[in-house]
Amino acid sequence: MSGATRAEVCAVACAEAWRGDGEIVASSFGVIPTIGARLARATFAPDLLLSDGEATFVTGCWAVGEPPDGPAEGWVPFRTVFDILAAGQRHVMMGPSQIDRFGNVNISAIGDYARPARQLIGMRGAPGNTVNHPTSYWVPRHQPRTFVRRVDVISGVGYDSAAAAGPAASRFHDLRRVVTNLAVLDFRSPDHAMRLVSVHPGVSVAEVVASTGFDLAVDGDVPPTRLPTPEELRLIRDVIDPRGLRYGEVP
Amino acid sequence: MFYLMAAYTGTADSGRPNAGGLSTKRLLGKPGEVADKRMTEDEVVARLRTGMTIGIGGWGARRKPMSLVRAILRSGLRDLTIVSYGGPDVGLLCAAGKVKRLVYGFVSLDSIPLEPHFRAARESGTVDVTEYDEGMLQWALYAASLRLPFLPTRAGLGSDVMRLNPELRTVASPYADGEELLAVPALPLDAALIHLNRADAAGNAQILGPDLYFDDLFATAAEHAYVSCERIVPTGELLAEGGIASLRIHRWMTEGVVEAPNGAHFTSCAPDYERDEEFQRGYASAAADPAKWAQFTAAYLRGSEADYQRAVASQAGLAAPTVLP
Questions:
Q1: Which sequence spans correspond to the domains of chain B?
Q2: For the whole model, what pTM was predicted?
Q3: ipTM over 0.85
Q4: Which helix or strand (DSSP H or E) is residue B117 part of?
Q5: Per residue in A67-108, pLDDT tens?
Q6: How many cross-chain Cβ pairs, A to B, lie less than 8 Å apart?
Q7: Which fold has domain B50-148+187-312?
Q8: Is residue A74 within 8 Å of residue A45, measured between CB atoms?
């Protein structure tokens, strides 16, 4: 369908991260990943569990920025989230401040750790998430200062770091995809280096390569990211984001 | 009551407040009665000492024992090690120069992702830090609570948590799997401060909101735990507002209980009140500007807790803080 905006293409690309995940918890940080998780459940991934962002699993499909309107189906305080993640029954999409070629991610501090140029939120659950269950990332602005050769602090564990840390770290380590405002990327190259999967309509491969601060694996012709279906567009526009909050992340 | 005060005075006067420990607590009640642990914020703070390791309950800008934090700001305490799922508690204590070391998984105001005072403290290098994965922090408190030296986890392996905290060790499973896991060391606390919705005078406390966070683990990891609450009610009325599963903090865990209506302000204390987002925005903007911070301090942090609550209630255009009947 023509007329889909870049933000809507991104939301569908985020939704695709949870395709085939079955009956697990989909956790999202950011507006467009949250739209994606709700869209996935409303269409091709009906078994996903979604929380209200506090301590309740809720059913149904509701608007971002609004309280849920569906019935609650579970109580999920933070302690339970920690249990779920250690059990591997979760796929999270987080927002990195820096990400490198093997998927190491920094949300802790930029610059010298002892006296950072910019203190960020802190490790949060990134170390535990990444060694326990599938993890994807959302980057609303694909740029070299985010896609760096080497992250300043490893909060989320990349493939090289997991391998170096041994079997206990790599056993459940599974980075699925990186969605940005320009493209979809994954780590399914022979050495788990980041690979270009698709470019969003209107974006060139050269633009993605130039916006990435390390060598990106690009094999052959890169297809365009798929467009939203008419039903997906209706859900995004009328049900999940009627106020257009998605344009705050991707104008 | 004199009996009780004598016991508490003895505890507070000893160099290390735990000198009496549990045996002191057992002496608190008169024969046939449960001890009355009610006290004020300032009485709690009088039992803390410079250099202590203090855990603070809540999560981000949610259900923080802010009236107790404000009492620490008014005190002479310093060189504290603060353990927290951090929010404005961490920011305020850093801004007041009370903190030597922070132990945290994150520091955030939730609706405002980054805490300005925490950022300033880190970016000026004025506090030492132990930064963990948030699940590791739970494990550290749980190990201390269970009197175990460590608990194993996958969280932290392969990340810079290991590089930045070189004292951390791994442990090999003694079973056939042989997995080598991170051994999170127990993190015993000298004192814990938590804020709940209701409590009784004996120190049983009740959570009416959707998430206890890790307040019970803060209390049980600590030698001395103090709970503030929105309202102290008779023990027989605790079940009027919540079911039996809401009585999660037991009196064996706590040494003092403070009635602090609106005491978590400006963080949330659902269902009694939500976060005061407008006040928090004002806090964050003041915290980012030294001149405005001086004004904020003068308006809110120079006086008593009652002065604070009056100042909050009198803000132009805002209703009085929610206080339940």
A1: 50-148+187-312, 150-185
A2: 0.93
A3: yes
A4: helix B116-123
A5: 999 999 999 999 999 999 999 999 999 999 999 999 999 999
A6: 140
A7: Glutaconate Coenzyme A-transferase (3.40.1080)
A8: no
